[in-house]
Amino acid sequence: MTYEAEKIKPYSSDENKGVQVERMFDSIAENYDTLNHTMSMGIDKGWRKKGIRMLKKINPQSILDIATGTGDLAVQAYDILKPQSILGIDISEGMMNVGRQKVANDGLSDKISFDRQDCMALELPDNSFDAAMVAFGVRNFEDLDKGLQEILRVLKPGGQLMILELSTPEYFPMKQAYWLYSRLFIPTIGRLISKDRTAYSYLPKSIEAFIQGKEMVDTLLKNGFREASCKTYTFGVCSMYLAGK
To answer: Model pTM greater than 0.90?
Structure first.
């Protein structure tokens, strides 16, 4: 099945989405953390904390952080869960290089590692991880079904997947306020701080196009996960999905 978000690409070129997303994140890696926290006004840290805490009940010792970017979720997950190891994977070496430096500065290089991997075809063994997590990355998947199936494959039986994703509020007045925020504030701040003017025009378009709520829960179930659920934060601006293997 082809989802609408898979058709939304950062650039007007014939390159596939994965290649374009990699190029986009490499270009904004240096300023990504500043931009991210500025645009969310720091609320994203609270969303991550709430999502990570949903994994506490299974006490995961090996965690896969997909679309890890600069490693923010991995660092927070280590602080809260204290697992034996976290592997952060991404297609952008530029983003992960920022993450590697961050982890080294925190003295966590023996606990958190990074590897360039395409989540459509993970070079990882079956049944390898107690938990997997994705923060604000699934909407960038070139093939959502294939990516979810790969995550399921590398999870151990009984393992949990936690997804955080930006979503569009459904009700007045947040729906209208968020439209203005995403269409005016995000691209403007992105153009002021980032070298890549396209990246922060792509962001609101990809959020609007991505499936959310029940449709995403049904997609998780369709791809083999069980007991999938959804919870929203900040009036529907962020959605958290939890599913098991």
So the answer is: yes
